[in-house]
């Protein structure tokens, strides 16, 4: 499916069956003009393959040709010049563990070159050249799928972590760690270790990002901030304001006044500055 908007051309694809436990979707983004994006905290790891053009992280560091981004609890910017095209693999909350060599919490608030975190990527440069030469998006996604399948090393999902995630989603990120550990049948310390290794942060921190995502989704439906704070699971308005400023650098009212959320926020957790 293709989504067109003035900021970018966005194409998204469902993964093949073998990858569905690990990858939510593939997204190809083409930028017809110079664009600076604000990437907001999300609950999923992200793999980015640059098909053509360049990219800059937070106005300073050049982005690697192929990169992995862990979970972040702050907004960050990426700048792409006109003509740049990227392919993204958006992992499930536990999916990135199948491809990365280290515990996922080592990548918290980090974007790393793929060859530093994925085993056996000596042919990565060749793969990048092959992707650059392909213009059909279905073939681009197929090449990315084959790359990931070649580098998968652990296709067994942790059942305790999967159960914990299901409980967190069921309670909209409001379950306490004591109750969560009781439900999944592990001690709090054991659950936290497994959760950090497989998801990339602690259950408590993950819940806070999930509530933030819920608040963004509710705002897109036109609700006021007081109603959003309550419905997203915040204990009070001050807690909502504090978390929101941590994640975006702005109070909620400032953020929504100064930015426009990507129309396809289900697929890209992105905001653009208002002109």
Quick synopsis:
The protein is of the alpha+beta class and 275 residues long. It has a domain at 2-151: Sandwich (Jelly Rolls). The protein has ten helices and 13 strands.
Keywords:
Jelly Rolls; 38% helix; 275 residues; 13 strands; six-stranded antiparallel beta sheet; alpha+beta; seven-stranded antiparallel beta sheet; globular
Would you tell me which CATH topology of the domain at 2-151 applies? Jelly Rolls
Rg over alpha carbons: 19 Å
Mean pLDDT: 87
Strand order of the largest sheet: 1-2-3-10-5-8-11
Give the distance, in angstroms, between the N- and C-terminal Cα atoms.
28 Å
Biggest sheet record: 7 strands, antiparallel
Count of alpha and pi helical runs: 10
The poorly predicted ranges are 122-126
DSSP summary, beta strand count: 13
Structural class: alpha+beta
CATH class of the domain at 2-151: Mainly Beta
Helix content: 25-40%
Architecture of the domain at 2-151, CATH level 2? Sandwich
Descriptive account of the structure:
By secondary structure, the protein is α+β, with helices and mostly antiparallel strands. It has a domain at 2-151: Jelly Rolls (Sandwich). Helix content is 38%, strand content 22%. The longest helix has 18 residues, at 203-220. The chain is globular and about 50 Å long. It starts with a strand and ends with a strand.
């Amino acid at each position: 499916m293709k989504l067109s908007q003035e900021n970018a051309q966005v194409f998204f694809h469902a993964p093949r069956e073998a990858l569905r436990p690990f990858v939510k979707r593939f997204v190809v983004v083409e930028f017809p003009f110079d664009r600076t994006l604000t990437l907001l905290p999300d609950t999923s790891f992200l793999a980015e393959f640059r098909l053509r053009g360049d990219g800059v992280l937070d106005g300073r560091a050049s982005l690697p040709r192929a990169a992995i981004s862990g979970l972040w609890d702050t907004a960050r910017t990426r700048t792409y010049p006109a003509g740049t095209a990227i392919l993204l693999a958006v992992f499930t909350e536990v999916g990135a563990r199948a491809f990365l060599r280290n515990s996922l919490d080592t990548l918290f608030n980090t974007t790393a070159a793929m060859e530093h975190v994925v085993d056996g990527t000596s042919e990565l440069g060749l793969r990048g050249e092959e992707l650059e030469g392909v213009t059909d998006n279905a073939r681009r996604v197929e090449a990315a799928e084959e790359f990931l399948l070649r580098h998968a090393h652990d296709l067994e999902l942790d059942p305790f972590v999967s159960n914990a995630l299901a409980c967190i989603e069921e309670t909209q990120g409001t379950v306490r760690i004591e109750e969560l550990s009781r439900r999944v049948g592990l001690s709090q310390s054991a659950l936290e270790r497994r959760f950090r290794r497989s998801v990339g942060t602690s259950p408590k921190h993950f819940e806070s990002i999930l509530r933030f995502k819920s608040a963004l989704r509710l705002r897109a439906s036109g609700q006021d901030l007081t109603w959003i704070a309550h419905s997203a699971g915040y204990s009070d308005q001050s807690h909502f304001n504090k978390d929101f400023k941590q994640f975006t650098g702005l109070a909620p009212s400032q953020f929504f006044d100064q930015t426009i959320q990507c129309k396809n926020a289900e697929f890209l957790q992105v905001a653009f500055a208002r002109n």
